Each structure stands twice: as structure tokens, then as C-alpha cells.
Amino acid sequence: MRLVLVGPPGAGKGTQAEFIAAHLAVPKISTGDIFRANVSQGTPLGVEAKRYMDAGQLVPDEVTINMVRDRLAEPDASDGFLLDGFPRTVPQASALDKLLADLGTALDIVMELVVDDDEVIRRLSGRRTCRGCGKIWHVEFDPTSKTDICDRCGSELFQRDDDKAETIANRLVEYADKTAPLVDFFGAQGKLVGIDATGPVEDVTVRAIDALRSYGG
Ligand code: AMP
Questions:
Q1: pLDDT score of 4 more than 90
Q2: Which domain holds residue 90?
Q3: In the prediction, which pLDDT does 138 show?
């Protein structure tokens, strides 16, 4: 199955993508993760992407599309994939459709995780990441026993630059301007499935998997 997850920052795309990809036995391909890996390795792509990421802006389409084209050409993606965080603009969506058409295939479903702005701000501004093991905590929903120290490995926690208040506001504006139009784009193709992404993580996963079942997933 070829699936895309869309939704605002903080909708839980990354978390749900893990569960759904495991359920479907397809690779999870997250453009945010690929960019972050490039940033931490200091590659030329990472240096370029970081400027945009830290400002809460989208990395230019051409850079992002080329990166996804290379990733989808890898053998593990030949029978299906779950894209998390791509496409995020209408030009990216058109490029993806074309890229898949060239390969003789197409997307099956675009799943939208629906959450309102207030909830997004609460979720993102409280998110903390462990410098040691990478585990993600939340000051309100999943706190550590000692402030800013990881319960799992004892390392210090930090706040991702793009989870800071001003950057969150920019990311929400970017989402409304550039990504929300994808809902209509894929809706017109009859591929859009909306899921209520509020409430416990497990409940959202159940809703997502139930919805996929009706598409044979
Ligand atoms: P994410 O972890 O998906 O929220 O992505 C983190 C950041 O990476 C975003 O705020 C963007 O700066 C960049 N990014 C990730 N995916 C894309 C994309 N499809 N198009 C442009 N920029 C992206």
C-alpha cells in the first residue's frame, strides 16, 4: 500500500506513522527525519535545510522533491511506503503523482490527522527530546521524574528549535498557506480519509487502522 499522512505539525504524524507502517509492513519515510539526519551529519543538504527548519519554514520544493525521488528509488519502497511529512505543498503533491505515474503506480490513500491549532500549540511547546537516546517526552502529557533529565538514559533534554513558540506560530501559518490546500487536492482525487487525531495515541491508531481496513490495508 502507498500511503501519505498529512496533518499540522504536532498532529502526531511521526508517532502514528510508526504504528501504521509496522501494521502495513512498509517503510516509513519521513522527510523531517531525513532532513534532521542530514543536519546532524553536517551534509550540504543539512546545512541548506537547517536555515529553513530553524525558521519554521519549508525547505524549497526542488530540494525536497529530489530527496524524496532518491529515497523512493530504494528497493525497500518498491512495494509500498508510508510518507510522513511529504508532500507538504501542492507542487510537491503534483511531483509525487508524476513520479509514481512514471513508475507505473499511484498513491492509494492520503490520511489526514485532524487536530485544531490550540491543541497543536499545547503539544509542540511542551515537547522535549533527549540528547542521549532521542526519546521524546512532554512536560504535561509524558513528564520525566526530574525536570529536563531523561528517565530512560539520564541525559539532558532539550527543546527542538522548531518547537519554540515563535517557530510554532510560523509553522502553523506555513501549514495553513501551503499544506492545507492538499486536503482539497487529494479530496478531488477521492483519496482523502480524515481521522480525528485528538485523545490517547492508542485510540488514534485504532481509528487509523480501522479506516485503512476499509481500503484493504
Ligand atoms: P517535521 O519533522 O515533519 O515537522 O519536519 C521538520 C521540518 O523539516 C519542517 O518544519 C520543514 O522545515 C522541513 N520539512 C520536512 N518535510 C518537508 C517537506 N515535505 N517540504 C518542505 N520542508 C519540509
A1: yes
A2: 2-26+79-213
A3: 94
